[in-house]
Amino acid sequence: MAILALETSCDETSVAVLRQGMVTQLTASQIDVHRLTGGVVPEIAAREHVPVMMPLVQQVMTQANITATDIERIAVTTGPGLITSLMVGVETARTLAYAWDKPIFPINHIEGHIAANFLSGQAVAWPAVALVVSGGHTELLYVPQPGTYQLIGKTRDDAAGECFDKTARILGLPYPGGPAIAQQAATGDVTQYSFPTPMLDSPNFDFSFSGLKTAVLYFYRDHPAASIPNVCAAIEQAIITVLVAKTQRAVAQYQAKAVLVGGGVAANQLLRELLSSVGVPVYIPALEYCTDNAAMIAAACQWHNQPADLFSFSANPNWELTPR
Ligand code: KG4
Ligand code: ZN
């Protein structure tokens, strides 16, 4: 099967062709634009998608040596995400599906992050627990089998990646904050400072990171001479400790046989290290498939059989994965 997939949920314009397990993908990053504002401004993100969208489709199809005739399905991220960014991908996909008379598959972005683990063709034991951690999402899902999900916990305020980004900004570090904090933390002493680990002991799988952000804000205001590497080590430790502890508890409660990780924060080395002790195999996609990408949307499309009616779906910024 040949699938053409588009992903524009936030600030990456990504197009992929997945054909017989082979991925051809091009992603245009807006990171330099958003670095100027220290974060993603939704209207700017949407506008940046427009001029690169169709050139990317053409380049990917050329690289994949494929014509419109060869494409069997068009898959597009339909939510969750930034509404205006999503609309660029959805309307492009709708237009192509109409012009080329192809079935269209609206795909959930979180399902895409989970499905990214299957791009390498590996076998996974079920049931699994999925941890999706990015700048926009922090979610734990119970996944009894591919295509079936139960959301068991999510952040009540900031996402884990957002917490990295915002605390980095407080400390004067560049955007995106996750890699910047991890880099500083690598030379820091984690025992020097300690920040709150919100909801660590709450009897559920929810998260909350805005209190940690505020704690860093006040701490740095009151201790402007504090060692940045030491502060970063403590921030990273606090965020990752909560993520790993809740994942471990979810594995135990749901008797999961595997953990599937996705989202940009999956690049974090401490997360990778600590997750390796949860007691079941942990799957983390290659870096280019952890961050937002279209190949993962094509991978998730393979789990579906029913295309959507071309004119009866639209971008849904709050689309939550529900059991089915
Ligand atoms: O999935 P992604 O590319 O975009 C979305 O937010 O959907 O994730 C980006 C997030 C940012 O918040 C960034 O700071 C974080 O992933 N991130 C990291 C690392 N690399 C990227 N967080 C912690 N450690 C990292 N090494
Ligand atoms: Zn994402």
Structure summary:
The chain is an alpha/beta fold.
Detail the topology: elements first, then pairings:
Layout: E1 2-7, E2 12-19, E3 22-29, H1 31-35, H2 42-63, E4 73-79, H3 83-100, E5 104-108, H4 109-115, E6 128-133, E7 138-145, E8 148-154, H5 160-170, H6 177-185, H7 210-222, H8 228-254, E9 258-262, H9 269-275, E10 282-283, H10 287-290, H11 295-301
Parallel strand pairs: 1-4, 4-5, 6-9, 9-10
Antiparallel strand pairs: 1-2, 2-3, 6-7, 7-8
Helix pairs in contact: 2-3, 4-11, 5-6, 5-7, 5-8, 6-8, 8-9
This protein binds 5'-O-[(R)-(carboxyoxy)(hydroxy)phosphoryl]adenosine (KG4) and zinc ion.
CATH class of the largest domain: Alpha Beta
Mean pLDDT: 95
* Number of structural domains: 2
Specify the number of helices. Answer: 11
Shape: globular
The radius of gyration computed from the alpha-carbon positions, rounded to a whole number of angstroms, is 20 Å
End-to-end separation in angstroms reads 24 Å
Helix content: 40-55%
